[in-house]
Amino acid sequence: xxxxxxxxxxxxxxxxxxxxxxxxxxxxxxxxxxxxxxxxxxxxxxxxxxxxxxxxxxxxxxxxxxxxxxxxxxxxxxxxxxxxxxxxxxxxxxxxxxxxxxxxxxxxxxxxxxxxxxxxxxxxxxxxxxxxxxxxxxxxxxxxxxxxxxxxxxxxxxxxxxxxxxxxxxxxxxxxxxxxxxxxxxxxxxxxxxxxxxxxxxxxxxxxxxxxxxxxxxxxxxxxxxxxxxxxxxxxxxxxxxxxxxxxxxxxxxxxxxxxxxxxxxxxxxxxxxxxxxxxxxxxxxxxxxxxxxxxxxxxxxxxxxxxxxxxxxxxxxxxxxxxxxxxxxxxxxxxxxxxxxxxxxxxxxxxxxxxxxxxxxxxxxxxxxxxxxxxxxxxxxxxxxxxxxxxxxxxxxxxxxxxxxxxxxxxxxxxxxxxxxxxxxxxxxxxxxxxxxxxxxxxxxxxxxxxxxxxxxxxxxxxxxxxxxxxxxxxxxxxxxxxxxxxxxxxxxxxxxxxxxxxxxxxxxxxxxxxxxxxxxxxxxxxxxxxxxxxxxxxxxxxxxxxxxxxxxxxxxxxxxxxxxxxxxxxxxxxxxxxxxxxxxxxxxxxxxxxxxxxxxxxxxxxxxxxxxxxxxxxxxxxxxxxxxxxxxxxxxxxxxxxxxxxxxxxxxxxxxxxxxxxxxxxxxxxxxxxxxxxxxxxxxxxxxxxxxxxxxxxxxxxxxxxxxxxxxxxxxxxxxxxxxxxxxxxxxxxxxxxxxxxxxxxxxxxxxxxxxxxxxxxxxxxxxxxxxxxxxxxxxxxxxxxxxxxxxxxxxxxxxxxxxxxxxxxxxxxxxxxxxxxxxxxxxxxxxxxxxxxxxxxxxxxxxxxxxxxxxxxxxxxxxxxxxxxxxxxxxxxxxxxxxxxxxxxxxxxxxxxxxxxxxxxxxxxxxxxxxxxxxxxxxxxxxxxxxxxxxxxxxxxxxxxxxxxxxxxxxxxxxxxxxxxxxxxxxxxxxxxxxxxxxxxxxxxxxxxxxxxxxxxxxxxxxxxxxxxxxxxxxxxxxxxxxxxxxxxxxxxxxxxxxxxxxxxxxxxxxxxxxxxxxxxxxxxxxxxxxxxxxxxxxxxxxxxxxxxxxxxxxxxxxxxxxxxxxxxxxxxxxxxxxxxxxxxxxxxxxxxxxxxxxxxxxxxxxxxxxxxxxxxxxxxxxxxxxxxxxxxxxxxxxxxxxxxxxxxxxxxxxxxxxxxxxxxxxxxxxxxxxxxxxxxxxxxxxxxxxxxxxxxxxxxxxxxxxxxxxxxxxxxxxxxxxxxxxxxxxxxxxxxxxxxxxxxxxxxxxxxxxxxxxxxxxxxxxxxxxxxxxxxxxxxxxxxxxxxxxxxxxxxxxxxxxxxxxxxxxxxxxxxxxxxxxxxxxxxxxxxxxxxxxxxxxxxx
Length: 1393
Fold this sequence. Notes:
Helices cover about 25% and strands about 30% of the residues. Pfam families: HAT_Syf1_CNRKL1_C, OB_RRP5, S1, S1_RRP5. One of its GO terms (cellular component) is small-subunit processome.
């Protein structure tokens, strides 16, 4: 209905209008005007304007209206449902989409109809886009409607009565037409003087190249004598000028009832999709050819071998009349042309194109007759180019002659000289000539062919086989000469209807080929001799009755006398009888025990006696039809008929037989050989030699026809294919150990002790060793200690993937899952069985205490490392035995793969444990410390120590002059809260501590570093009584001797820092703890209160739980290090005893990766995720992180594999922890782009998390981002974070600026914070710590002077003065110390006053 509404708002997408009832509606932008492509709302649409609209529809409580005048003022009936649609109804609609085959029209309330192209009312050759546009209002007439299926067909033509002429052309008839006009896509013609028709560009010619040439030459008035009516579109005819369709018009079906399975019919491609091709016949009859039935060989895209409009021959596979579906095949093997129609049509159209091109008044009309094929013409040399000699003709200046260099026949020509040549081809105004004596001599002096040749041509019969010589190779055909018939000139096609875009067969100039006569000049419309290559012609109906009688005299087993006419690398070509040909395979010349080359005594022209052993199969690939297979083996020549044919049936070869074969083809990795006429063999590159130099020159060592002697290592009787190994001393039958042959069918020819050739497939990371390919599907493993002879620091130096190597098989075994494991060695001395090779201890029994050994570090942890002495023996080195000096960070000092030398401390063959020491001194560290015990320590003692390790929960401190380690919890570090422990302490710092608690049973010492433990008040410091009330720091080295060993004093280690975690080990310290704890601390700091000493019960329970987890993890690691599983079975036992331990599962995965079994490692990860209890969230998370690292290292593609695991982990674990774990992996592996993308997602999802924003700022600083970028991130974070987290965030950001960025930015940030909160001593303390770390004395003292001038409570001022005094004692002199004390005294005096 039509309503009046007021415009409320105007948006880029349309206008919101409101009716008088208050209901709102939308007027879309396209409906705001009649114009096309509206970019912005018209000026009429202003807020408050009242306009007249028509309601288009209502859907989902949304009302849509239109302001198009044609619709608003329409008086026609409204169509608002499919039920209201009646045939003949005329109504208004608007176009929504324009396609090549028609338009889609929309009506009211979502009703949509379709207008076919024939109902658009267009003139022939006019495209719909040029007349109509999307959004246009049109008047439509309902043609048909199916309400149940919501299908509606309409027409733009208002009259249903059409004028039908009595003689209107029907589909499938042949008509003539005159060109009226040309459009870019069609040629519009007038048919019979009153009908109009259109010829699409692709329907002008069968050959897609000729269609474009003809279109460029057509002009209005040109007459087509024959056109085929393909279809009708209203009064317009769809026509085709294709020679193939016109000639077979009577056979092309127009209805599905005319289709018969097995028939081959002509058609054209009307559409190509990924699944196949649609082939159109007459009318709308269409068939479909699936992709696998379109071509003979697999292809990626059908559009590469077919094009829309291409003429094709289609083989009908299946006809389903009920569903009106026709299944076709376009394979060339089933649809090849049996005649010459394609090339005949090509030459006929070529003549028409030439006539149109040279039809001007200045062009003589007799030039075609003058330059007839096979005639002698005389011309003058105009130029000599790279591609040939250019000739000019005096009487025909528009014609150009060309003599290609290979057609000179040895003649020497010069520019300006006159030559006479034979016309061999005439195409597109270019005359190809030949000066070959045999061609020129075939014509008499008067320019006519000799009489004997004419008589010979008359003897030619259709389908007769002849030998021809390639003279010229064109794009679409080949020019041939037939020597047997006085060098008659013929033409052979290079393509067919279905193969126009397929790769064509390659011919060389001068090549001899066998062809079949397809058409002789007297019967061919183009007047040419058409020859068909033997591969494309049907080899039936050979019509020489005389030859057929003579050929029937020979059969398999007959003895013949033949003459050698050609010797090729693998066969000898012979002729015998009357024009009969045969071949002798290279294996059919000598007996198997002969060592000389089979063809060494044969010569061309030699006559030999041979026996026919088989009738050769026709080969379409080679283009030959060698009728008979012959043999000249002495044994066959003497044998009877039955004996000579009995050996053809079976394959008698078996494994380990020694045979001789001949090279047929050499690929990149395989040599293909022939053993007999029907048995082939192949030799893999790594089976051809054991010497790397020979393997590198694999393809150069073999040539076609070369004899190769080898041992059979595989037999495929179905394919009649053998696999060989090059014959050498190791291939002798007596050296084969039968007990080794049952290991695997793949590796049955590989046994322990063999020296074989290999190729490095992969260099495993770390000390994983090498993966060596030793067969097509067989790989071996080279241990890290078996790469070189000597103990060198870098055994992988000079090794690269793809390198050929010579290796020795050390062991062949079957794994539990059925796969075969082959252990190899590359040590050259071991290959020669040399006894002077550098020792490798293969058994623990060979080791005794004191033995000097060398090895490579396999892995390192805070408690020591493991080294590899050989592929069978590993040893452990505990931390105390790594060096005579103190080792602060084993991961830093002993990298994986490092070569070390030491001596054996103990070797236990039963348990397989070996202990090694790298210390040079004879006494162990534990022996020196036997006199140290916890009894020497007392609660309250003040001791000096050195920070051993810094963790998030506290410091591990080594007590001076001992190896006892104590823990100072983070709450005991200072009287004020410590925001960043890493900013205050680092490993190696000397500290003074007070012993708070000693637990001798658990071997633990608790320490405190608070200043209040050492000084009772500030005045004590001023009076110099700093040590009163406490104990003097003691030197434990002077304590009396007590019992107890070194191992009893070790404190359990905390989690390793992330930088030192190997790929599969998991460090979750980076996301332990929650933002809630940080929020609580920030809240306490914001209120100016210190942390409460007595924490809540919940916090205590959480702390105890985490501490217990650390203890359990350390105990599991210690137990695992004591008894390391060596086999999958041992790991299976371990995971059954500890099913919820992620530590054990991850060690199992790492063990499998050391074996290069990635898939098994993945399956173990999946098992772990299914097995671990759902309540053990942290354990599951550890496995997920290990899974991340596994896919990051071995996934393919890596990025997608990690993302899949990441998405799965999000469903089971805390999303924030999972995101942080993935981020840690990206940062560790330097995948910065992926880390950036992940940060973008994290800051959107966890925008209230202070930790996430701080990690992003830290990452940006380490990447060197500019200051403006950092500021933008900080501003975004402040907008997202809640108020109670902002102070903590700004403080930590300033600390990061000091550490990773520009210190000046950090100062500015601290100054801004302190401007708002000048009495926050904790922030002042952190600010001072950062400046002290940088070491600028002037800035530090100025900052101290500022803070000590503040008006703060005495307790806070005391803390600041003590901090100032400590700094001056460390960096200043006596004068500065007095200055600080003086300022403190002044503050005390002010407070007392």
